[in-house]
Amino acid sequence: MKLATWCCLSSAVLAAYSCLVAANNDTEEIKDQTAKDACPVRLESRGKCEQGGECPYQVNLPPLTIQLPKQFGRMEEVFKEVQNLKEIVSSLKKCCQDSKLQADDNRDPGTGDPGEEDDNRVTELESEVNKLSSDLKNAKKEIDVLQGRLEKLNLVNMNNVENYVDSKVANLTFVVNSLDGKCSKCPSQEQIQSRPVQHLIYKDCSEYYTIGKRSSETYRVTPDPKNSSFEVYCDMETMGGGWTVLQARLDGSTNFNKTWQDYKAGFGNIRKEFWLGNDKIHLLTKSNEMILRIDLEDFNGVKLYALYDEFYVANEFLKYRLHVGNYNGTAGDALRFSKHYNHDMKFFTTPDRDNDRYPSGNCGHFYSSGWWFDACLSANLNGKYYHQKYRGVRNGIFWGTWPGMSEAQPGGYKSSFKKAKMMIRPKHFKP
Ligand SMILES: [Ca+2]
Question: What is the residue range of 338's domain?
Answer without folding.
Answer: 205-426
